[in-house]
Amino acid sequence: MKMLNKVAAAAFGLAMLGGPAIAEFPERNIQIMYPWAPGATMAASQVIADAMGQKLGVNISVVSTPGAGGVKAFETALAAPADGYTLFDGYVAPLVLQPMQGNADWSYTDFTPLWSATSNAFAIAVRADEDRFADVTALLDHAAANPGDLRYSPGSAGALPHMVAAKVMQTTGAVAQLVPYPEIDNAVRDLRGGILDFIVINPGVYNINKDDVKILSVLSTLDRSSETYGGAPLIGAAGIDMGMSNLSPMGWDWWLVHKETPADVVATLQAAMGEVVNDPTVQKKLLDMGYVPTLFSPDQYQEIVGPVAKELQGGIDAISWEKEKLDAL
Amino acid sequence: MFDLLTLGAPLFFTWQAVLLTAAGIVAGLFIGVLPGLGPLMGIVLMLPVAFHLPPIPAMGMLIAIYVGGSAGGSISAILLRIPGTPLAAATLFDGYPMAQKGRAQDAIGLSITSSAIGGLIGGLVLLFCSPLLAAFALRFGPPEYAAMALLGLLTIAVVSEGSTLKGLIAGGFGLALATMGTDEFTNAYRFTFGNFNLTSGPHIVPVVVGLFALSEVFFQIESGNFLASPNIQKLRVSFRALRLLAAHKVNLVRSALIGTLMGAIPGAGGDVSAFISYAVARRMARPGERYGEGAEGGVVATEAANNGCCGGALIPSLSLGIPGDASTAVLLAALFLLGFFPGPELFRYNADIAGGIFIAYLMGNIVLLVMGIVLVPFFGAVLKVPKAWLLPAVLLLSTMGTYALQNSVFDLWVMLVFGAIGYLLRRASYPLAPIIIGMILGPVLENNFRRSMLISRDGLNIFIERPISATILGLVAIMLVYAVFTILRGHLRHASVVNSE
């Protein structure tokens, strides 16, 4: 009996010692900190999370942690252990923009990338029955001739859509009253109700409000962006150079983990996400929602994210210019 | 209306959603039975679990706890003359005398069946009215939302228990808490004290757990009697109550409708609706019914009303995003955490989710009807659990639930601080519900007011130029006059008592 006990104790001891080494990641549910309020864009992250969760055999919940222009979500994820169970939905605002503005003390190089997720261009939208402005030139001309007469919303103040819209308005001398909303989804209601004159929309929100809005211009230099808005004209077609090109004027996200996350955990997550974003079914789902899978692999992270910072400075300056103009009204 | 049900059915009729809704009813009933706990605490404790579930199983479970908890409070009122929740305070008027006469079994049966059928009636009104209200609310803009938030805040302050002035102060405290975090318009930090945990203000869950659960634990500790275990009459399963209830059809429907109406007014709440419907039933009773001495109608009136109220409270919550009471405020927080904005947009963009929630509510009440009767023998056993076991369990669940929400130790500190604040405020007879409503409605009020001012071309006139906003503000004015009148009357009465002494 004693011998049996010893054997059992030894087996138990070995099991305990071996436990952590044998246990394979992931053993429990994973969460990804999404930096904005719930809305159409969160649904795109949910599509990737669901598919990736299925690959890994656990549930991946997308946790909306809005606040401080995306910084709250990053801070919350940074406070969690570097064990791969807390991921960052690395949108351009908290990843690049907020550090540039001195609101966060990290750089994009402080994270390990999994894969890039999606990109989406922004567009200027008016009510479907709007008859005052035939095209974007008419709208911007009116705003230039009557500063502060029009009301517009880019969703939350200081975020990328606001920056891109401000840059276009600065380029054309147009001035419209900014009305911030927590998410552009909320502003659509007031556009429909005639309270707002135009909004800066994203493809996800456009897709579910197609009947209520009309796209005047897509704020991108890439032809494929036009496709996500039913073939609406790009801003260049109106002869406007907004000084931002390729990914710079677009919303995009990379999924990231802590720099200190163990290499085998990173490899497991990268492999799962790589499979998911390259899966045609997932891609179709995302495209149907208006989000274009960007398909940049982890080793392209530096070359893609690095140059964006420079062009964004123009957008930050444009917001300051807009503030000056509005304060002077 | 039926489109919503069709869309929601595939989401609800999964084993996970159905089982969790049934489990929520059982958990809610037991939480409601235990004196001091209630549906709000049940919802709060299960919130971190819900957070990791798909939306409809999660909301089904939480709503079922809300429904079960609202019904369970009557059992301790009937058996021990201690209402398990404030909602059941009016049930003891006739429930306890019934038990004294050896009819505890009937009283409990009537209270469960009235709750379930009252809840179902509330659910039908919810199903009919919410989409209509949501469609109407599509015409709402920032001025209307600001006016609605103001109305909700004033109502809860005026109607909540205790003095109106204290209600207003508590609501003001909630509003002040809501200013913490990041300013939505300038991205500036307000009262964050350099702590990133406060960049969105304190999280609503630790605040609610602290204010309600922890303060209750402190109170119970203070009152002693840790090992007391009451004597409970033996109870058994019986469906006789359904037959008894048939004699109170009119009372049942009337009380359920009163409850639903009161629930739909933000801030009015279930306890108020139970007292009102009890008063109405008593006035309309036949002479021989002897209300206050064990009348069946008294139990039917209060219980149908306080569960009808649940359906009512969900109407403004789901269709406007304006919570009807503290429990629905936390349900809204849960919906938001699950990735959905309550309000007209919920019906427009996520009609399946809205439909699934409606089905969960209706099915919850049907489960309540069955489980409430089947589980009757166990309620007595639960009531015998001494505080020495119960309080550590509540403390443990509160701590685990709060921590699990964001894996944040900071949240535990928030819970502790608000536990202390809740205890002190309750000792000074301040109502706590207005604090939560203030926290939820604060950003709605502030941001929509500022948005209105940016949109307006004519300053504050935007609020009276728009007919809906003007009408709501008219109601706000009436409410304000009523509040001032109540406060002055209280002072005059106090002065006359002092003079006569």
From TrEMBL, chain A:
Q: What parts of the sequence cross the membrane?
A: none
**Which Pfam family is one of those matched by this entry?**
TctC
Q: Taxonomically, which superkingdom? A: Bacteria
Task: List keywords of the entry alphabetically.
Answer: Signal
Q: Where is the signal peptide?
A: 1-23
Looking up SUPFAM superfamilies in the UniProt record yields: Periplasmic binding protein-like II
PANTHER family from the UniProt entry: BLR1237 PROTEIN, TRICARBOXYLATE-BINDING PROTEIN
Family classification: Belongs to the UPF0065 (bug) family.
User: What protein is this chain from?
Assistant: Tripartite tricarboxylate transporter substrate binding protein
The organism named in the record is: Pseudotabrizicola sediminis
Automatic annotation (TrEMBL), chain B:
Q: Which UniProt keywords apply?
A: Membrane, Transmembrane, Transmembrane helix
TM annotation in the entry: 63-82, 116-138, 150-180, 200-221, 326-347, 359-383, 432-449, 469-488
What are the residue boundaries of the DUF112 domain, all occurrences included? 19-437
One Pfam match: TctA
Asked if the record carries the keyword Lipid metabolism, the reply is no
InterPro entries assigned to the protein according to its UniProt record, in alphabetical order: DUF112_TM (IPR002823)
Keyword GTP-binding assigned to the entry: answer is no
PANTHER family named among the record's database cross-references: TRICARBOXYLIC TRANSPORT PROTEIN (PTHR35342)
Protein name from the UniProt record: Tripartite tricarboxylate transporter protein TctA
